[in-house]
Design a protein that fits this description.
single chain; alpha+beta; three-stranded antiparallel β-sheet; 14% strand
Length: 389
């Protein structure tokens, strides 16, 4: 796997306990210097440690996967106290050389053993502050894409509910920041105002403020992201939150709209209301995920209907999208937007093992398994014959 590093000062990078890269003076002072490094990943977890030194030239670096949208770095926090937590951790400044001898931190050991203070939330706090206080908004407070001079200038995308609200919910859970949770709930209600198509109970992909109208094209994955993210918000909201009842109603309306458009195969179409559009795997995975959670958490009022839809969706995925080697087929490539369905049907090709599909297949399978276990424990008669509901 290739990663790209841009140095702002002296950098050493250690991969799996071996020095992989040490910056030179050109890397450190040339503004457009860009170094591509190849990581030979091994099965299981791989360790990555970056040492940055502060000089008059600068401090730190930018690091990410080459083609970052396609090859995403997933980072698990080190130290036994943070078991299961995601994200980088950063030590307080120190004069000690952590890359020398016994002082190298063991990622599986106790954080206290390093004798350093580590900060896992510095980046999260900056992101949260940007989203809550600096991100572009419409007059009513809705997030949108300003993107001056770009094709997406002055637009709102259903996708962006997924790019914003799950983070805000998880940040609120970790920090206790109620403002972040309130913002997530508020954004759903604001996006509904612009993108919801009430006659079909589904979402337009984009609202274009340049023309003052939605595209009215219900792209499958954009709708999947909407429903996926709404389950994150509902799980996080306390029962007495002022927006909860309205969002539960919205969740049920959306689920009704999606269930009505499920194909006989169990999958959904790339353009949800166009039977001539190809059947697409990633939106199907997100609908299965959200339906299963809606049943298990008690948000859905017509559980019988959605049990059938959930199991049909998962059956369709394992028959038509996931092969015996675990490859995921039939995932739409990353999109722009259009006012016609033809763009989504003919220009956005299906991809095998696209990152837009792999993660949600694992999440959907996990939620379907949890649903089956929940049915087995709480409703044995239904579990024994779920398709008769």
């Amino acid at each position: 796997m290739d990663i790209v590093i841009r140095c702002l000062g002296p950098i050493r990078l250690v991969f799996n306990n071996e020095l992989l890269y040490r910056s030179n003076v050109i890397d450190e002072i040339k503004p457009d210097a860009r170094v591509v490094l190849n990581l030979q990943l091994v099965k299981g977890w791989n360790s990555l440690l970056i040492q940055a030194k502060q000089t008059a030239a600068g401090f730190g670096c930018q690091l990410g996967a080459d083609e970052a949208k396609v090859r995403i770095l997933n980072v698990l926090a080190p130290f036994e106290e943070r078991s299961g937590q995601a994200g980088w951790v950063y030590s307080e400044p120190t004069n000690a050389d952590l890359l020398e001898g016994a002082s190298f931190p063991d990622p599986d050991a106790s954080e206290e053993d390093t004798r350093l203070t580590w900060h896992p939330r510095l980046i999260a706090e900056r992101i949260a502050d940007f989203m809550l206080h600096q991100l572009e908004r419409r007059e009513d407070g809705a997030f949108y894409r300003k993107c001056t001079g770009e094709y997406s200038e002055n637009t709102m995308w259903a996708d962006d509910l997924n790019m914003s609200t799950p983070f805000l919910c998880r940040y609120a859970r970790i920090t206790g920041c109620s403002e972040a949770l309130d913002e997530a709930a508020s954004q759903f209600l604001l996006f509904r105002k612009y993108l919801y198509m009430p006659d079909q109970q589904i979402m337009s992909h984009v609202y274009d403020f340049k023309y003052g109208m939605p595209t009215k094209i219900p792209w499958g994955r954009g709708n999947g992201w909407t429903l996926f993210s709404l389950t994150e918000v509902l799980e996080a909201l306390p029962n007495d939150h002022e927006a909860r009842a309205e969002l539960v109603d919205f969740f049920n309306e959306l689920c009704e709209g999606y269930a009505a458009l499920q194909a006989a195969s169990g999958l959904w179409h790339q353009v949800l209301n166009d039977a001539d559009a190809y059947q697409e795997a990633s939106c199907t995975g997100m609908f299965a995920y959200a339906f299963a959670r809606g049943i298990r958490f008690g948000w859905l009022r017509e559980k019988d209907k959605f049990l059938q839809a959930t199991f049909r969706a998962w059956d369709g995925l394992i028959r038509h999208a996931i092969d015996r080697q675990g490859n995921v087929h039939g995932v739409c490539s990353g999109s722009r937007y259009a006012f016609t369905a033809d763009y989504y049907k003919y220009d956005l090709l299906r991809v095998t093992n696209d990152n837009h599909g792999i993660g949600i297949m694992m999440l959907a399978g996990t939620e379907v398994a949890k649903l089956k276990q929940w049915l087995k424990e709480d409703l044995p008669n239904i579990y024994n014959n779920p398709m008769k509901l």
